[in-house]
Each structure stands twice: as C-alpha cells, then as structure tokens.
Fold this sequence. Notes:
The protein is an alpha+beta fold.
Amino acid sequence: MKFSTASLATAAAVLATVNASSKLRSTNVRRYLSYEKVAGYAPGSQVTDHCAIDRDQAAIEAELAKKTPEAFENALRIYNEGGNSKSYAQVTLTTPLSTFIGAGTAILGRNAEGNEVAGKAYEDYQAGTSVIKVQYATTDIQEAYVQCQVGALTEADRNLSGCFAEQGDLTIDGKEYSYTYIPSNDNLNGRTIAGFSTGARDKMRVGCKGCPYEDFLYFYDYYGSDTYAHDWVTAAFAGDKTTFRNGNADFSQYGMDGKEQIIKKGTAYLNIFMYVIREFEDALDDCERGCINCNDDPVHAWDEGVCFYTGSIEGQDGAGDGSLLHQLADKRCADYKTCGVDGTDLEGMARLNYELFDLFALGNFQLQSGNCPAARDTTKRVAQKMYIPMIQGSIRYAYKMDKLQGGEKEAAEGAAFAAAVLPRIHAASPEAAQTIYNNLRVGASSTDSAAVKSAFESVYPALGITCGEMGGLWNEAEKSYYAGMEPCQDVSTRETETVVKNNNTLAIALGGCFNQGNRDSGEEQNTLAIALGCTFGALFAIAAAFILFIRNREKRGEMTFETWKTAEQSVVKDMN
C-alpha cells in the first residue's frame, strides 16, 4: 500500500509533536503552545495520554460494582493490563526489518476503513526483528486523544476505530513492510495502574537520581515491600493475607462489599497516589538550576504528576466527576465543610484543590525558570497536603464504625484510607500509628473514633498540616459538627489565645496601677513598690508577646534574627 508524499509529511509532523512531548530535548517552541487545561492547570506539554489513566480506574470501579466473580476478574485484568493509556499494537512483519529502527521513528498505516493511522516505534529494534510494537500517536485534544483503546477492556468499552487494520502495510522509515496481527488481542497498553507499583523499586528507591524518595521511603520502611500497593490490591482480589512488616490485613474476612472498597481505594490511593509524588520528584531530579532553556523534561514530568492527580474526566475546569485524587478531595470537603476558596462551604471544589493547583502552577514556573530549590520546597508542600483527604477519610469511617453502626463496607473503607496514610503517621509517631491501625485494621473488634482522631491530631505539626486545613466532621442534618468531631485547635492558636487572655488580665491590672489617685505621704513607699511592679509586669507582657511573635514566624518559615542576619550578609556580598 503506497502513501503519498503529503501523507508521509503529515505523519512525520504528527509524530514530531508526539516525540516533542515524550522526549522534550532541545526545542523551546513547545513551551509557548497552548494545551488544554487540566482542571484549570495549564500544562506545558502534551499529557492527554497520561491523564487518561483515570479511565482505567473508572473501568475497574464499574466492574467491581457488579459484584460478580466474572466482573472481579475483568477488573483484575484491567488493573494489570490497562486499556486507555499508552496504547500500542504488537504486529508481526512478514519480512524482518532491514535496518535498525530507533524508538520514536515515525510509522504510518491504515485502519479497517482505510483511513491513515500514525504511530511511532515503541522502542529500539535491530535489523532482522520481525515482531515490533507501534505506539499510536496521541493528540492535544483530551476527548479524542487516541482512537485505539483495547487492552483488557470489556468488549462494550473498546474502541478500535483508530487501530491498525488486521493486516496491511506499514511505512517505516520510508520503506514498506507487510504485517499481520489480531486487533482484539494485540492492541495493548504500556501504562497500567499495576505498573505504578510493580516498577516502584527502580523508579522511587534505588534507580533514580534522587533516590530514595522521602515519601516512598515512609511506605517502604513501614510495609517492608517496594510493591506494597500491588501486594495490597492483589491480596484483596485473591482474598488472601498480606505479609507486610507492619499494617497487615486478612482479606478473607470480607465478602464482595468489603473487597470492592479495598480494591478501588487501593488502586487510587496507594498505587496512583505515590506515583503522583514520584513524577514531581522526577521533575526535581532533572531540574537544572539557573537555566531557563534547559528544563523542558522537568516541566513534562511535573505535568504528568498533575495529570495523575487529576485525570481526564474532571475536564478543563475541574467540575467533572472524576475517579482520582482530585475527586477525593472534593468529596471529603463536603464531609468536613472545607469546600470553596475560603474552605467554609459544603459543596464545590475543595479548598485543598484550590491550594494544590496554586502550588502546581507555582512549581511549573519554578521549573521553567530553573529555580530548583524553590521547586523542591513546593513539592514538599504538595506532598504534605495530599495526605489530608486520607486522614479525613480515616476519621470519617472510624466515626461511622464507632457511632453509626457501620458494616463491612464502612469498615473496609476505613481500613483502606488508613493503609494510605499509616506509613506517614508511623514515621512521625509509631505509637499514634499503632492506635490508628488497631482501630481501623481489617477485622478490628471495635473502633474508638475519639482515639483515632486524637492520634492523628498528635502528629499534625510533624506532617506540616493544620487543624484548620483538616476541618471537622459535619452533620448536615443537625447543622453542626458531630459530637467530638469538631475541628481541633492548633497549638499556635491556643498559645495566641492564652497570651491575649493574659495580656487582657494584665491590662486590667495595669489600669489599676496607673489609677492610684492621690496618695498621702504615708503611702509613698507602697506607691513606689506598686509602680515598680507594674513596670516590670508591663515589660514581661511585651517580652512574652514578642517571643510568641518570633515563634509563630519560625513555624511559618519566615525570617527570624539568624535568617535576617544571613540575608543581610548575602546582600552585602552581592553589592561587593
């Protein structure tokens, strides 16, 4: 089958765009192109294919909801094999390759209707190779990012309109090769939710420039497994016990109601959660400090992290009903009255998402401008905030089990949320983590929601989060917080209130000091003593207020005496 010169030129242009987004080497034109927003975030690269991972999550959830053995098998296959992200065809060439073909080489074929289909070589292939993978080209439009979605999807969910025909010719590096394959079996996927965990060792602990990544290490140290997320999910599918160092679960105690919750929350809040952080860390690994034109790769990795947090279903404005972490934050804000820009509403986008997307935009700019240290600080703040919905979910289901007669479903949800945050809690306080685990583990005989809430609150300062960010568990029927589930009070807030109270008391006393009226000569010595006492009291009040002021600035990371001195020295040095 012959292709015109114009067709080949078009294919080359399409693949040039695809390769620019996947390799991102020296071009700077990409940065000024306009890509569709991801829930309000403006990516600097093409990441539509990455955002589509939420379609796998949605497909898994749809199968699990059917609660039949066959549907659970379908969900397991989608988890392991995917269907929507990084689609490729594995074809057999009638005649082996005559020359070496590098990864990313443009390949052009046709679908069953005879329309042109563009792709690229999935990896390097030596001359003489007969079986090759051809990755389908993706577009900048999320709704139509790729038109070949097969993998492990059920027949009703498959889309073969943009797949290569069952047989025909492929034009590879200007030469035609005949091929055959089975479209329903040989259209596969290179990105899966299972892969986010099975590849974690080399991508997060030992094989990366910045390894080990801090947050992943919390989980590795606690569970004792690089593949803890995959272990959790597959054990739940099989109804087996986990064999972790800490935090074990026996899923044989659950029926399909419980397993559904364990699995769908595990895939999103264990597998995908950590991979989001991994992409941000990967961006930092590649960041070149002070170089404005050198950081396309880091920006692309950062964009990928935002996509894995958000997904494609949320849409460009974030108003969609997605399946990933963005949607979780929006759900929990309705339970904790932390929705809206100010975090005081019961509906709308979570304040957490507003704050995170501000940080996402900030991190993008910091990477583009080569401000790598600042981007690292931003990444740390992002990771800290991402644990908030996991804690909210844990406390919510602890309360349901303790006070609202929750059943297997609620118990499983609590166990899944706890599993997604226990390693971080354990790093701050093993005692607090043990309390939470004892009350929310699979098979817990009872649940003390007050103890769970108190254990979490004891480590908020270590986690870098506040009571205000967490909110309280809201009872909409009563228009008040559930008893004992009110928002906690941060230490700094309590200290401020205490000082204000003491200062008010002191002010009253001082008022008496300076309202002594006229005294006769017999009382002059007593008056002098009172005056001196008042003076020292006033000085003490001023000193106490100043100390509190400095302490609060330090907690917020603002400059104190030492950093002021350092900043002054830096300015003098720059002037010299």
